[in-house]
Here is the input.
Amino acid sequence: MKLINRRRRFLRNTLALTGAALVGGCDRLSETDWAPKVLDSATTLSHAAQRVLSRNAMAREYTEADISPVFRPNGSTDPQSSAYRTLAANGFRDYRLEVGGLVAHPLSLSLDALRALPGRTQITRHDCVEGWSVIGQWTGVQLSRVLDLARPVAAARFVVFRCFDVMDDGNEYYESLGFDDAYHPQTILAWALNGQPVPIPNGAPLRLRVERQLGYKMAKYLRRIELVSTFGDIEGGKGGYWEDQGYQWYAGI
Ligand SMILES: Nc1nc2c(c(=O)[nH]1)N[C@H]1C(S)=C(S)[C@@H](COP(=O)(O)O)O[C@H]1N2
Ligand SMILES: [Mo]
Here is the structure.
């Protein structure tokens, strides 16, 4: 057996038995080619074990040379709600992101206010559940910074994202995250794609990036962020538009 295979098998077994013990090594693991295959085996672990394993893990980041020529848009690409049309017609100058629900300090943030917060730029791969991927560079503010300003109260357990677009069945797109992903350093509210304002097809003026989960978690056309204790009483009760159609709430890659 080649050494690499032996290491792989060893790691797979180790992960399966003591996933939590390896948390400290995840950043290093993710820099190697074989790490994604090893981490794939984590999908056989229980959800709870996977969360412990991945709490601090970073999604892989790429170089400018890896950026896809076109960032393929998917789902809604041109929202028609009158609120959105009005904002778009004015170049989103009147846009405000509302932050409310179980917070001590509700917010209403303009794009300038969001851009004035410390930013993060990351080149990441977007994986759609349909089986295609694209790589793009995203710039925005870490969601954790916005949450720190809003100060979630103790009862808050999930972050819900409300969007401007209405789907074919008449329901608004929405999504939700637990606090592990909400406070993850690569979870950002992005206002730029590849150095330009986010184009309308990709979620203008502000969209979520959650780099360790599948594309449908990354709500575009953000209207409002709500802190809640449960999402069971929102829309279909499963935590997101696609979750309400049967997709998994935790869409780990
Ligand atoms: N508001 C909203 N967000 C959305 C969607 C959508 O239809 N509406 N589609 C999701 C899906 S399935 C994917 S793959 C990505 C697509 O992002 P992109 O258009 O920038 O490629 O957005 C996600 N976020
Ligand atoms: Mo998707």
In short: Residues 1-54 form one domain.
